[in-house]
TrEMBL record:
PANTHER family linked: PROTEIN PAFC (PTHR34580:SF1), PTHR34580
Domain HTH deoR-type: start-end pairs: 2-75
InterPro entries reported in the protein's UniProt record: CBASS_pafABC_assoc_protein, DeoR_HTH, HTH_11, PafC-like, WCX_dom, WH-like_DNA-bd_sf, WH_DNA-bd_sf, WYL_dom
SUPFAM superfamilies in the cross-refs: Winged helix' DNA-binding domain (SSF46785)
Record keyword Acetylation present: no
Organism: Amycolatopsis melonis
Superkingdom, natural source: Bacteria
Keywords for this protein: Transcription, Transcription regulation
Protein name according to UniProt: YafY family protein
Length: 322
């Protein structure tokens, strides 16, 4: 553990130049006193670390000194795929591992490329969840991830829709982070299925290693499952007229499904800018609520029963506020 930390101190000084003890302690999540001891240990081992005193002082390596001790551990190499998702990496228990891997990667780069990589990190940031939503914090996520990495069977107690609790034995194949929500792709009774991690009530690691199915493609599986899920979620199609304002609001009110319907619409706007679109909607009352969000900027043309339901809802609202 200390050897790894000493290497991190060395790589931090190599990548960033002069750093204070307080800055090093913050990066490594240790005390300033520990940093002092680590600096002494590096100096004693022959690393040319110098201390500049004064308000602008700190620790630095002698000019031109570079280490080539940048070999990555297996965990660090795995964590690099999450380099743009630091919060997700932390949720999976790989936060500090990712930081160490990035340090080693930067240290191995030539100076020019290292500077360019630093500029990218300064100028671009990926924020995955939608507004007013965060990435789920889940007590079972780390254990699920560990089972995925090591291909070990697990038994879970799982809450299905309608609050029905079931027990399943699963071969975990992959994890997906979708709009702040974590999902597990797993094989159960020979069938590939998807489980939302927030609904996993209990998890038992069975300690049995399984053989991953040959040719399983997690990205392809998720794309196909998402398309099927979308069709189940939006089984009805409403033919609607949208004002120019409603067209601008479609991505916000109807999400990616509505945005795609708008983008693929074969019609042209009329003289007033209104556009007729076939909009996928949920069944029952959720569809009414979704369409009411557009107010007077949307008109349902078909099906007739949906138009009648919407008109009834508007009439009831008018009577309530009248």
């Amino acid at each position: 553990m200390r050897a790894s930390r000493l290497l991190s101190v060395l790589l931090l000084l190599q990548n960033r130049g002069r750093m204070t003890a307080e800055e090093l302690a913050g990066e490594l999540e240790v005390s300033v006193r520990t940093v002092y001891r680590d600096i002494d240990a590096l100096s004693a081992s022959g690393v040319p670390v110098y201390a500049d005193r004064g308000r602008t002082g700190g620790y630095r390596l002698v000019d031109g000194y570079r280490t080539r001790l940048t070999g990555m551990t297996e965990e660090e190499a795995q964590s690099l795929s999450l380099a743009g998702l630091p919060v997700a990496a932390a949720e999976l228990g790989l936060g500090t591992v990712l930081a160490a891997a990035q340090l080693k990667l930067y240290a191995a780069l030539p100076a020019e490329l290292r500077d360019r990589a630093g500029r990218v990190a300064e100028r671009f940031y990926l924020d995955v969840p939608g507004w007013h939503r965060g990435i789920e914090s889940l007590p079972t996520l780390s254990a699920v991830a560990d089972a995925v990495w090591s291909s070990r069977r697990i038994r879970i107690r799982y809450e299905r829709w309608g609050q029905r609790v079931v027990e399943r034995e699963i071969e975990p194949l992959g994890l997906i982070l979708k709009a702040g929500n974590w999902y597990l792709a797993g094989r159960c009774d020979g069938t590939d299925r998807t489980y939302r991690i927030s609904r996993v009530l209990e998890l038992t690691d069975l300690g049995e290693v399984f053989e991953r199915p040959a040719g399983f493609d997690l990205a392809k599986y998720w794309q196909e499952w998402s398309e099927q899920f979308e069709r189940r979620m939006f089984p009805r199609v409403a033919v609607v007229r949208l004002s120019p304002r409603a067209q601008a609001l479609v991505p916000f009110y109807a999400g990616s499904v509505g945005a795609r319907a708008l983008r693929e619409c074969p019609h042209e706007p009329d003289a007033d800018g209104w556009l007729t679109v076939e909009l996928p909607v949920e069944p029952g009352e959720p569809a009414i609520g979704e369409l009411l969000r557009f107010g007077p900027h949307l008109e349902v043309l078909a099906p007739a029963d949906l138009r009648a339901e919407l008109a009834e809802a508007i009439e009831e609202m008018g009577a309530f506020y009248g």
